[in-house]
Amino acid sequence: MFFWMRKRKQIYENQKGEVLLSLFRNLFTVSKRISFCSSDKKASMTIEACLVLPLFLFAFLNIISIIELYRLQGNISAAMHDTAKQMAVYGYEYQALSGGDASIAESLGLTYLYAAAKVRTKLGNDYLDGSPLAGGATAISWLRSSVMQEEDCIDLVAEYFIKPPVAVVGFPKQIFYNRMRTRAWTGYDNAKNSTDFTDEEEIVYITPKGTVYHRSKGCNYLKLSITSVDKSFLDTQRNQNGEKYYACGQCGASCGNTVYITQYGDKYHTTLGCSGLKRTILAVPISQTGDRGACSKCG
After folding, report:
1. What distance in Å separates the CA atoms of residue 229 and residue 127, rounded to the nearest whole number?
2. Spans of all domains in the chain
3. DSSP letter at 271?
4. What's the CA gap between 275 and 151, in Å, rounded?
5. Which pairing describes strands 258-262 and 153-162: parallel, antiparallel, or unpaired?
6. How far apart are the first and last CA of the chain?
């Protein structure tokens, strides 16, 4: 009896050992498989990350640059709007004081150079230098602007280049424009625009030393379009009639690297205060024009 009990105990212990050994083998096999599969997945994810991450960063930088570009354009437009409104107010003083004196226009801030300095001050050099603007704060060109020329309008045009955030072949710098146009506070010309009193005598415009009268106050012969150029390039400049520019008899002998020319004149000037760049405009009835003839452009 005792013998059979010991035999059963020995069989039970042997079976228990085999079961434990089998479980251990299974766990070891599963562990090896899990370890092998996990290593494969990690390698696959590393390769995918290497391929996708640069593309994601490039797309993210471009989205940020587009947002920054729109912000830059909006800030430039806002600064130009404030500057144009301020210059429009100065237009009233300009008309009341001078009737067309270029030196007074410069002192009042009615030039595109004043507009450029004002916009740059409003935005700040640090902001412009750190923006997508190629060349920084001094790279904005205002040469397409005009002040107090056509119908007393202030037309500010900012031209500049935008650089991509990351240098990519095939994507060069792009040119952009911002424009702000407003009319100076010079009042309403009743003599020109009235339709209720058609029997009144026509009002025309003359200058004290002029030989013709003008039907339009915005005539280019009255509203001088003054442009500053480097004296070394003067030989290549021509006026609207294709003529060369010669030294002004009053100020042309002065030395200077910068000279001033007009669209229809044939003289260059070394100072904006020269009387050759001034226009005193008088509104008179056509019967008081004397022996003056009609302007070839607006008469």
Report:
1. 30
2. 1-32, 52-183, 201-294
3. -
4. 23
5. unpaired
6. 145
